[in-house]
Design a protein that fits this description.
Layout lengths: L1 H21 L26 H7 L8 H15 L4 H16 L3 H15 L11 H14 L8 H13 L7 H13 L21 H11 L8 H15 L6 H6 L1 H7 L9 H8 L8 H16 L5 H13 L11 H18 L14 H13 L13 H16 L5 H6 L1 H7 L1 H6 L3 H11 L6 H14 L9 H6 L1 H5 L12 H7 L8 H14 L7 H15 L9 E2 L5 E2 L5 H10 L9 H14 L7 H6 L1 H7 L8 H8 L6 H16 L5 H6 L1 H7 L1 H4 L7 H8 L8 H14 L7 H14 L12 H18 L7 H16 L6 H13 L8 H10 L6 H16 L5 H6 L1 H7 L8 H7 L8 H14 L7 H6 L1 H7 L1 H9 L8 H12 L6 H16 L5 H14 L12 H13 L5 H16 L5 H14 L9 H11 L7 H20 L9 H10 L3 H22 L8 H5 L1
Antiparallel strand pairs: 1-2
């Protein structure tokens, strides 16, 4: 730095020599301020003595140059120089460049450079003034390409004075004269003896610049003048002091914000630009800086730091435009930035072919094509200098700081700014975010070209890569960024994700939330805007989603708008592939990124364009008040059946994905985080939980850790799953083919996909298959999942089955069932009042009973209450048939009272219809069709109604009248049913219905029910029947029927068999059971003198004989055998008469055969004794 300073002093001395040679007529000297000795000055500054005393006291080294610089600065700052001094300064500056020796001095120091740049030599042999102006401006333009030396230092000194007045810059005067006059930016007179105020033309260049940037769509300024304005701006950008208007407008601000920044290489200008929007920045400086920024936006050459840092890369990768067309200047900085970002993300691309078309519309299309290439492949590692990378970030931040720096925004968004952002437009810094918000709130009213322009700015800014380029976002979210996210984020690219994850944080301000959503709104609509997503998924997007393989190619959207990508279609395609249940083949890195963005953007429907666009009207009409995190989607899901078809389809597709990944429901996942951590941790680490976490949350819905908000979200998920079976991933995955084949394809019902309808359809298929072995068979996985869905409905804390509420609401209220907490308990309550229910409700309950009895695993109450008994007593029985097993152990000591009571209750439910007895139905299906045709017709006519035991009654009748037509399997199962009715006569619906009044009258007191329920009732009514106190004829007939069934098999007369069990084993052990054989054996033994029955058995037989004696009068076929004649009558009237007669005939035949073979067994006596 010391060397540079010495060099400057040396060239200052040389320049003083030049001045002495040019102006030998100087006459006097001016005494410098202070006590310093007076130096020898070349110029006559006597007219400026007072001005020097007032403004130049701080000058340490008094020379012609330092005094000239001081006075010029003072005059430009406040225009306080005296007229005489101003005239003196003007003469010095003008003579400096008009003197004939100027070219000689320039040639002396710049001979080498003139040879290097021959185009800067004399252009006119006649006009020396034009030659000097041309030489000065030409060499100044090429100063940066010169090596350090005399010429460069000479030009640096000259520039300081030349740029205090544009009239000293040669070609500009000629090129812009007409434009200055036309636009009222001042008056140019080309005479060499012009005199005037030194500041009279100072604002002319600023005026032209403002006209240029404020009306980029209008040809207000000629092309040659534009070029000269840009050229001058390029020269001024090198050193802050060269731009005199900016220098004096920002001198105080420079001291305030950039005190420690060294002048040169555009550093001071860039520092001031970075602070332009700061609160302490003066309005004059801010206005001047904005103008310079707008010029930089129109031509990257005007930004000296960018040119200096990136010129090598710009040339290497051909990022510079190939022409200087009027259109290209609007986008030049954007183009260069994007090209350089291409190098960072994509690697070297031949971009020079893009900017060869001068047509404005085509150029914009090509620009947009190039824009999208700037976001992606950092991983390729293409070398870009660190300083260049830093400058790219700085200029991205600059373009994002003010909408006025983007000509396309000015052109296309004027109306929208006036309509939605009038207040913000005045400031500029927040106008872009205002437009982004308006795009969300009024997407159909905004100018599509304006939205396209916003996308272009965001692509250049590349906010997803570095959030800091968006100062509005940074300032509004500073507290979250510097606190919650500081430890969570390792690089700038992850910051937006962190902010999204804290969107519902109480510490997040409303302003920050708005800024985040405004950015994410556009990221969610363009695949290329999220650099992390694009980097991971570019290949998959090209292969699977028809994304453009080369970003230089274009595509046409559905509305005919040319663009780099067909809107959000690529994103939607990636979303679908990420959760494809059949063919999900995205790469691992892409799959992870797609799921990340989907989970983050699930907080708002506005970030789901596939839903937001399809549901625009439904959101406005049905969900306008739902504005919280996730509330809009929840509202749409709740209103699912009422949505427009397109909206319904979009919501269904997203909800299907949500059912597979609970993290897509951000509100749910955050509210239930503690419950998941404690109870569902085994599923929490899965990339996609496939519905496991929701099942876990439903299972633990009553735990104390589940807060009100979590419970509400879980209940919401339960409710919406009822609207469409496809909203439950496991159900959809396991049963899709069965549902499509057997259920939905056979009906056009609008609710054919509702979970209740699908469960009902699949249940019917399952029942038919179990009972009859007919019809289609559900896949094992579908049957398993059908059971899970059925139990989830039953275990719901409130009634979520819409069919149950539709058909049973009145009955629930009437019978007080609304007091129960779960659907299962409500259903149990309704079962207890089944005979009193309305027909529709009764049908609903019967359908549930059919399923539960045909497959006991669907009976959640039985599985829960009897879980221990099932494990201990029925472990070798399939869980679908455990009720049959438990019935056989009802009197077992291992059976708990609760389980025994429930089993008894289930038996009573079964008794109403044979379809609730799957074992009996399947065993006797042939007999039902052939022997009970009328009853079978009832089954067909009333598939969802119980027929009160009519089929069972028919089978029981055939058992006692002619069981030869029944299979052994059917007889065995029917006897099992009869045996249960003997233990509990209330299970015999015809008997209990006919005798209930008599039982209440005659057997209400004095008879213990005994173990297993109502066993004593039957003994009581039989005794009363024998006494003749039973008056009801229908009841008498039912008693006689029961007695006939007992006569068919002693095992069916439970009390008699228990009393005579030991005697049966002793005397009738070899007698085959059935057909009254054991009973006949016992009666014979009772009459034999050689047999000795137990007292209990003999007493019980005597009781039965009294009853039979009474019955013989009512119905002879129930009389037991006593004498040979009565036995013959008994046999003739017995329902097993055929078997008895056959047995009798076989006995006689055997006896006769033995006699024929063995002879007589009595001793022969003499005839005389016989005739005596």
């Amino acid at each position: 730095m010391a060397t540079n300073y010495c060099c400057i002093i040396s060239w200052a001395f040389l320049f003083c020599v030049l001045i002495c040679e040019a102006f030998e007529d100087a006459q006097s000297h001016v005494k410098p301020p202070g006590m310093r000795p007076a130096p020898k000055l070349t110029y006559d500054f006597s007219a400026c003595s007072l001005d020097i005393s007032r403004h130049c006291v701080p000058v340490v080294q008094v020379t012609d140059l330092t005094l000239l610089q001081c006075l010029i600065d003072a005059g430009l700052q406040d225009n306080s120089l005296s007229p005489g001094c101003q005239q003196t300064l003007w003469n010095i500056k003008l003579n400096l460049t008009l003197d004939a020796q100027f070219l000689n001095i320039a040639a002396k120091y710049c001979q080498k450079e003139f040879n290097q740049f021959p185009e800067c030599r004399v252009v006119s042999p006649v006009d020396q003034q034009q030659n000097r102006a041309h030489m000065l401006s030409c060499m100044a333009e090429r100063k940066e390409n010169m090596s350090a030396g005399q010429c460069r230092d000479f030009l640096t000194q000259i520039e300081m004075f030349v740029f205090t007045d544009f009239r000293l810059i040669g070609r500009f005067v000629t090129a812009c004269k007409d434009d200055v006059v036309k636009l009222n930016c001042g008056q140019l007179v080309l005479s060499s003896d012009v005199r005037g105020e030194m500041h009279s033309q100072g604002a002319t260049l600023d005026c032209l610049m403002r006209k240029l940037v404020e009306h980029p769509d209008q040809e207000l300024i000629s092309r040659q003048c534009r070029h000269e304005i840009t050229r001058i701006a390029e020269l001024q950008s090198d050193d802050f002091h060269l731009d005199r208007t900016l220098f004096f407008a920002c001198r105080d601000d420079r001291e305030r914000f950039c005190r420690d920044v060294w002048s040169g290489d555009g550093r001071v200008l860039q520092c001031l630009i970075n602070h332009r929007t700061d609160r302490g920045m003066s309005s004059d400086c801010a206005s001047a800086l904005l103008l310079r920024e707008q010029m930089i936006a129109s031509d990257y050459h005007i930004s000296h730091p960018l040119v200096r840092a990136c010129q090598k890369e710009v040339e290497k990768y051909k990022c510079a435009p190939q022409d200087q067309s009027s259109d290209s200047m609007y986008y030049l900085l954007s183009y260069v930035l994007l090209c350089l970002e291409n190098v960072l993300h994509l690697g070297m691309l031949t971009t020079s072919t893009v900017i060869t078309n001068n047509n404005s519309s085509v150029y914009f299309i090509l620009l947009m094509l190039l824009i999208v290439t700037s976001i992606v492949l950092f991983s390729l590692g293409i070398a870009v200098d660190r300083d260049c990378q830093a400058q790219i970030v700085e200029h991205r931040r600059m373009l994002m700081s003010d909408y006025r720096l983007a000509p396309e925004l000015i052109i296309t968004c004027a109306r929208d700014l006036e309509t939605y952002c009038k207040k913000e437009a005045a400031d500029g810094s927040k106008a872009l975010h205002c437009l982004m918000k308006a795009s969300q709130m009024h997407p159909t009213e905004m100018n599509p070209s304006c939205i396209q322009a916003i996308v272009g700015v965001l692509k250049v800014a590349d906010v997803s890569t570095n959030y800091k380029v968006d100062e509005v976002l940074y300032n509004d979210c500073k507290s979250i960024i510097e606190n919650e996210c500081q430890s969570d984020v390792s690089n700038e690219a992850d910051m937006l994700s962190c902010l999204m994850n804290h969107l519902d944080s109480p510490d997040l301000s409303e302003e920050c939330e708005n800024r985040i959503l405004e950015i994410q709104y556009f990221l969610s609509r363009d695949f290329t805007l999220d650099s992390q997503l694009y980097e991971a998924c570019r290949k998959d997007a090209v292969e699977k989603c028809h994304a453009q393989k080369n970003w230089h190619e274009t595509s046409v959207g559905s509305k005919g708008i040319m663009g780099p990508e067909p809107g959000y279609l690529v994103l939607t395609c990636l979303y679908r592939h990420a959760y494809d249940e059949v063919d999900a083949k995205l790469s691992a890195s892409c799959l992870k990124e797609v799921r990340r963005v989907m989970r983050e953007r699930s907080v708002s429907v506005r970030l789901m364009p596939e839903i937001a666009d399809a549901c625009f009207n439904d959101l406005a009409e049905k969900c306008s008040r739902k504005t919280g995190v996730g509330e809009e989607l929840m509202c749409l899901q709740e209103m699912f059946q009422k949505l427009e078809p397109n909206c319904q389809d979009a919501v269904r597709k997203y909800t299907m994905m949500q059912s597979r990944d609970f993290r897509l429901n951000q509100a749910l996942s955050k509210a239930c985080r503690q419950v998941v951590k404690i109870y569902c941790l085994e599923f929490a680490h899965e990339e996609v939980d496939n519905g496991d976490i929701m099942d876990c949350l439903l299972e633990h819905k009553g735990v104390p850790e589940m807060n009100h908000k979590c419970r509400a979200y879980v209940s919401h998920t339960e409710l919406i799953s009822m609207k469409d079976y496809r909203f439950t991933f496991k159900f959809r995955q396991a049963c899709r083919s069965d549902v499509e084949q057997y259920c939905t394809s056979k009906t056009d019902n609008a609710d054919k996909y509702s979970r209740s309808n699908v469960v009902h359809c699949l249940s019917e298929i399952l029942i038919v298959r179990i009972m009859l072995g007919e019809g289609p068979e559900l896949k094992k996985e579908c049957r398993k999942q059908l059971r899970a869905e059925y139990l989830k409905l039953d275990n719901a804390e409130r009634i979520i089955d819409p069919e149950l509420m539709d058909v049973c609401e009145a009955d629930i209220s009437k019978n007080g069932c609304q007091l129960y907490e779960t659907t299962m308990l409500v259903t149990e309550c309704l079962k207890e009042h089944k005979l009193d229910l309305e027909p529709a409700c009764r049908k609903y309950i019967f359908r549930k009973e059919k399923l539960e009895f045909n497959d006991n695993t669907f009976d959640g109450m039985l599985q829960r209450v009897c879980s221990t008994e099932i494990r201990k007593l029925c472990s070798n029985v399939g869980h679908e048939n455990v009720l049959h097993c438990l019935e056989g152990h009802k009197d077992d000591l291992a059976m708990s009272d609760d389980c025994a009571e429930l089993v008894s209750k289930r038996q009573h439910e079964q008794a109403s219809d044979i379809r609730l007895m799957p074992v009996l139905y399947s065993s006797c299906s042939k007999e039902i069709r052939e022997l009970c045709k009328n009853e079978y017709a009832l089954l067909k006519s009333f598939p969802d109604e119980d027929i009160q035991g009519k089929v069972i009654g028919c089978l029981r009748q055939w058992l006692t009248e002619d069981n030869s037509k029944m299979s052994d399997k059917c007889r065995v199962e029917l006897k099992h049913v009869i045996y249960n009715t003997e233990l509990d006569p209330t299970l015999d619906i015809p008997f209990y219905s006919a005798c209930k009044s008599e039982l209440d009258r005659l057997c209400a007191d004095g008879y213990a029910t005994g173990i297993g329920g109502h066993r004593g009732i039957l003994e009581c009514i039989k005794a009363r029947y024998a006494e003749g106190t039973v008056k009801d004829e229908t009841c008498k007939q039912q008693i006689l029927r029961v007695m006939k069934e007992e006569l068919a098999d002693i095992h069916l007369d439970v009390n008699l068999y228990q009393a005579c069990a030991m005697d049966v084993r002793h005397y009738c052990d070899d007698v085959q059971s059935g057909d009254s054989k054991i009973l006949s054996c016992l009666l014979s033994a009772a009459q034999s003198s050689n047999a000795r029955l137990s007292d209990e058995c003999r007493s019980k037989l005597q009781d039965r004989q009294l009853i039979w004696a009474k019955a013989i009068k009512e119905r002879r076929d129930v009389r037991p055998p006593e004498t040979v004649v009565e036995f013959a009558h008994f046999v003739a009237g017995s329902p097993a008469r055929s078997s008895l007669l056959l047995a009798l005939m076989m006995s006689l035949l055997i006896f006769f055969a033995c006699g024929m073979v063995c002879g007589r067994i009595t001793r022969r006596i003499r005839r005389d004794l016989k005739n005596r």
